[in-house]
Amino acid sequence: MPAAGDKRRRAPCYNTGSALPAAVSRSPAAPGFARHSGGIIMADQTLSNSADKLILVVDDEKGIREFLEILMRREGFRVETAGDGAEALEKARSVSPDLILLDLMLPKSGGYEVVHELQQGDGTGDIPVLIITGRYMDRSTSDIIRQEPNVRDFIAKPIKIEALAARIHQLLKTRPPTQRPGR
Fold first, then answer.
1. Torsion angle (degrees, nearest 10) of CA 43, 77, 111, 171
2. Looking at the whole model, is its pTM more than 0.85?
């Protein structure tokens, strides 16, 4: 428990629901745990280096694609990009990404079609996909897409940077870089 008058923000402890001071990166009270800037605390022993992971960013809007590429590089990941569904499928087959950030509304082949094609392909069926969309979907549509085995989550536009970074690190079991470029 914090001392009376302690106004430090408290971050939830991953998998336990308990809270630790957000300022703590290592603590004797929480051995083996590290704090992510997004507020998630994860055990160090199971985390790999984000530089070992490749993310494929797929969005037809160049500005969003470049924004996501910069964000993923800042988090230490290697990044490939694609501007449409056909290019996304081609790159997924050639570079075997560890994760795909996929917009649903794409030219040539829509995001939903990309998800289905990935599942049918050799070596692409197990690639996790985070759907990023600004499109409103009713509950039944989102439930149908969520049933796809490789779809892990939906991220709504506008994108909350910290939440997206934390979710990706959680999915890929990586640790964020201690020094981010540009800081």
1. -10
2. no
